Structure formats: structure tokens, C-alpha cells
Amino acid sequence: MTKQEALFEYLLRIGDNSLIIGHRMGEWCGHGPILEQDIALINIALDHIGQARNWLQLACTVEGKGRTEDDLAYLRDAYDFRNVLLCEQPNGHWGDTLVRGFLFDTFNYEFTKAMTQSSNSDMADIAQKSLKEISYHKNYSCDWMIRLGDGTEESHEKMQHALENLWKYSGELFRMDEVDEMMIQEGIGVDLNEIKKEWDKTVNETLEEATLKRPEDGWMQKGGKKGVHTEYLGYILAEMQFLPRAYPDAKW
């Protein structure tokens, strides 16, 4: 694998994470538990989509084949996507969405903060531009984990159950391979082992305040970074990609 190929793959992973979880959050439009939170989730979704566009635009530039971010979003099949499996998990109930967001947002904040120091100036600039938004995402998720975890008996039970169901997807966030190693050697990428330490600290502190029990680190699901996904991604793409595939010449 060349440096260019590794960089393209690395950018796809970052961009696809934002794109897919952004689409998931967008599915809450008009379905939030209260109006204020409905609007908050849509704003978060738009943040993710905007970040995805920046990362995927850069990926197209690195690839050098004339593709656009729209081509990457709408004209790839599931096995070409590189998002982690956590991002494609269904919304479920309010607690499921919050826990999924908490696990990812806490990671994404530490990852993006570290990425601001990348030797690739374009990537560092995108990370710096995104960090304020992602900081809000993390604070929002942590606040709701505490509010509902340390809330009523019912809210506590639902949050604990959601945490236990989604925990097995958290390990993939920190799984490194030859792409990560090459990017670290070049000073471009982030050492996920270091990110894991900060993630553990924030997660442990938040769960303690939320009176939630951290699940045991057992077997972890993986595959998304290599293009092996759950069936949920297929349903996402069927909805997200329908218009550009059915009407490829359509213009706004």
C-alpha cells in the first residue's frame, strides 16, 4: 500500500464515520421527544454532514480520479464504506441514540483534538474547524447520559440496557491496522492507543456521575473499517442514495 492509498483510506474512515452517524441523527427530524431536542439533534446531524463533506472532498483530491464528495457519498456500495459499525447502529429509543452518540462523540472529540496537530496541514485545518462543533456534541452527550442515568428508575434502566447493548461496538474505535501505522509514522494520523486513555477517563467519570455501570470489555465487534458491515448500513444507503441513483442527472 502506497502512502497516497493509505491516506485516501484514512480520510474515508473519518469522513464515513461523520456521514453515517450524521444520517442516523438526521432520521430524528420531527421525531424528537420534545421540540428543543428535536432541533438539537438536527443541528448535530448537520454538523456531522458538513464535516463529512470536508473530509470526503479532501479524500477526492488525494485520490486524484476526478470524483467528488457526492460520488463518494451516493455512488459507493456498502463494502466500499469504511465507517465503524457503531455509527450505523439503529436509533432505537431516545436512550439508544444518546448512548451511541456518547460513545462516538467522546472518541471523536479526542481524535479530532489530536488531529489538529497533524503534519498534513489540510487535515489539521479541517480538524481545527470541526473541533468546536464536536466539543458541543461531546458535552451534549455527556449531559444527557448523566441526566437520564441518574434520573428515574425507568430512565436509568433504559440507559444501562442501551449501554450494555452498544458497548461491544466501542472496541473498533481503537482498533489499528497498517493504515493507521503508516499514517502515524508519517506524522499525519493519530495513535488510537493514546486516544483510548483519554476516552476511558471521560467515559468512566461520566458513567460514575450517571450512576451507570461500565460493561466488561469482552468480545468486540469489528469489520467496518475493512468494509464488512451490519445489515443496517444497507438500509441506510438504500434511503440515502435512492435519488442520485434513480435520477443521476437530476439538478436542484
Structure explained in plain terms:
The chain is built from 11 helices and no strands. It has one domain (3-246): Ferritin, CATH 1.20.1260. The mean pLDDT is 95. It is globular, with a radius of gyration of 18 Å. With 252 residues, it is mainly alpha-helical. 67% of the residues lie in helices and 0% in strands. The longest helix is centred in the N-terminal third of the chain and has 29 residues, at 35-63.
Report strand %.
under 5%
Biggest beta sheet summary: none
Task: Please report the distance between the alpha carbons of the first and last residues.
Answer: 39 Å
The average pLDDT score comes to: 95
Kindly provide the radius of gyration, computed on alpha-carbon positions and rounded to a whole number of angstroms.
18 Å
State the order of secondary-structure elements, H for helix, E for strand: HHHHHHHHHHH
Extended strand count: 0
Shape, per Cα inertia axes: globular
- Tell me the number of structural domains: 1
CATH homolog superfamily: Ferritin, core subunit, four-helix bundle
CATH class bucket: Mainly Alpha
Give the second-level CATH assignment, the architecture.
Up-down Bundle
State the share of residues found in helices, binned by percent. Answer: 55-70%
CATH topology (level 3) name: Ferritin
Total count of helical runs of at least 4 residues:
11
